[in-house]
Amino acid sequence: MPKLLVLVSGAAGAHSLAEAVARGASAVRFTEVSVRRLASGPDKESPEPHLAKYRMLDADEKLTDHDALVLVGDESGAQRLATFLDGVGPLRDQVGAVVLSPEVPAERGWPLSAALGRQGMILLSGSEDPDSLGRRAATVAGWVRHAKSHEGGTGHHHHH
């Protein structure tokens, strides 16, 4: 059962993109989807109203507990997400993707994708709608999780 985390930072537009990603991922059977918001700025206790329904990412929540991480942000959120990512440990062989609000120039997403790459993640790129990207992230995460379950086995193969 793949676990996918949607991490959102930004204004209301980013919020609706995050919901679309989560909706797409949830459509993949057995996928467990969580949406968390990144603490934004000094006033962490009173988030913008549209984000209040999402819990803040706790310091003890491990990104490594997830098979996929989809970052969703607007212009200001993208910057915060990039800064945050550089502070987390390696996320080797997890699936990673970036979704930015339409008003953000595409090239702004590359530093975020590069940050995911530095973590050792498997990057999904593409300009499909957030719903489709969520579905694809969950599907690929399921494949990777399945393949990893065969690692370090006893040497004999089984057939599906």
Key features?
160 residues, alpha/beta, Rossmann fold, 4 helices, 5 strands, globular
SSE order and pairing:
Layout: E1 3-9, H1 12-26, E2 32-37, E3 68-73, H2 75-85, E4 95-100, H3 109-118, E5 122-123, H4 130-148
Parallel strand pairs: 1-2, 1-3, 3-4, 4-5
Helix pairs in contact: 1-4, 2-3
Mean pLDDT level: 85
User: How many distinct helices?
Assistant: 4
Radius of gyration in whole Å, from Cα? 16 Å
Coarse structural class? alpha/beta
CATH top-level class: Alpha Beta
**Largest sheet, described in full?**
5 strands, parallel
CATH superfamily: Flavodoxin domain
- Low-pLDDT windows of residues: 42-46
CATH topology: Rossmann fold
Order of helices and strands: EHEEHEHEH
Tell me what portion of residues adopts beta-strand conformation.
15-25%
The CATH architecture category equals: 3-Layer(aba) Sandwich
Shape: globular
Number of domains: 1
* Termini separation: 17 Å
What topology, given as strand order, has the largest sheet? 2-1-3-4-5
How many β-strand stretches? 5
Fraction of residues in H or I helices: 25-40%
What does this structure look like?
- The chain has 160 residues and is an alpha/beta fold.
- It has one domain (3-148): 3-Layer(aba) Sandwich (Rossmann fold), CATH 3.40.50.360.
- Helices cover 34% and strands 17% of the residues.
- It has four helices and five strands; from the N terminus they run βαββαβαβα.
- The protein has a five-stranded parallel beta sheet, with helices on both faces.
- β4 (95-100), α3 (109-118) and β5 form a beta-alpha-beta unit.
- α1 (12-26) crosses α4 (130-148) and α2 (75-85) packs parallel to α3.
- It is globular and about 45 Å long.
- The protein starts with a strand and ends in a 12-residue tail after the last helix.
- Residues 42-46 have low confidence and may be disordered.
